[in-house]
Amino acid sequence: MTTDEAKTILLLYRPGTADAGDPQIAEALALAKRDPELTRWLGAHSARQEALRAKFRQIAPPPGLKEQIISEQAARARISSWRRNAIFAVAAAMVALVALVWLWLPHRPNEDTLANYRIRMMKVAALGYRMDFATNNPSAIRAYLAQRSAPADYALTAPLEKAATTGCAVENWRGASVSMICFRTGKPLPPDQASDLWLFVIDRAAVKDAPPAGAPRFAQVNNLLTATWTAGDKVYVLGMEGNEAALRQYL
What is the structure's pLDDT at 103? Predict the structure, then answer.
C-alpha cells in the first residue's frame, strides 16, 4: 500500500469508532505508524473529523418537530404549513452541513491538478523528506535520477546552475516520477536541515492543467512561496521560505 492509497482509505476513517476494525483501514493505520508524513496527515484529518462531529452535535431539530410528525401520522392529516417550514429548515441545515464538510475536507488525493501537485510537493519539502542521494555534484544528481527513471534532462535557470546543490530524491505523483533537487541558499540552517531551496520536476503530461510556457506563476503554500513554470515537456515548481523578490533571484 502506498502513502496516497492509505490517504484515500483513511478519508473514510472516523476516530473512536469501529472503523479501525476494517482490514484496509487497519493496514493504512499501521502504515501511518511507520510513516512520519502520513502520521502528520492523519492527525490533521482526525482533527477535522472531530470538528465536523462537534458541528453535527450542535444541530438541533426545530422545537416540536417529533411531536408534530407523530400527530400527523396518527391522524393521517394533510401536511401542515408548519411541518413544511420545519422540513425546509432541516433541509437548509443539511445543505449548510454539506457545504461545511466540503470546506473542511482536504483536496482529494486522486485529483491530478497542478494545485494538488504543488501542495503535495511543498508538504514533502516542509514536513521532512529522506534524501535519496546526498552530493554537491550536479552531474552526479542527473546520473542518479536517470538511473531511477526520474526526469533528468531538466533545464535549470542560470541562477540555479550556480546554486549549491545538496542532493536529490525521487518522489511519486499519481504513478509519475518526480525529481526533487535540493539546494542551499547560503543562509544559516539548523543542524538537521540540509536544504532551504527545492526544485521539483515532473513530465508535463502527468499534470492535467499544467500552465503554458511563459513567465513563472507565484503561489503561497503554507509557509513556502512557490514559482511554477513549464518549459518543453517538463513542469517545474521551485519553493523556499521568503518573499517573491528572494525567490526571483533563482529564476
Answer: 45
Residues 88 and 139: their CA atoms lie apart, in Å, by 66
Cα dihedral 232/238/244/249 (nearest 10): -80
When divided into structural domains, the chain yields a total of 2
- How many other C-beta atoms can be found within 10 angstroms of the C-beta atom of residue 132? 16
123 in the same domain as 231: yes
Of the candidates 15, 125, 124, 116, the residue with the CA atom closest to the CA atom of residue 28: 15
- Written as nine digits, the cell of 119 is 501542495
What does pTM read for this prediction?
A: 0.58
Handedness of CA 201, 204, 208, 214 (dihedral sign): positive
Range of the domain at 237: 114-248
Determine the average pLDDT of the residues in 125-146. 90
Whether 56 and 145 map to the same domain: the answer is no
* C-beta separation of 144 from 133 below 8 A: yes
- Using the 3D structure, point to which of 76, 104, 132 is the last residue of a domain: 104
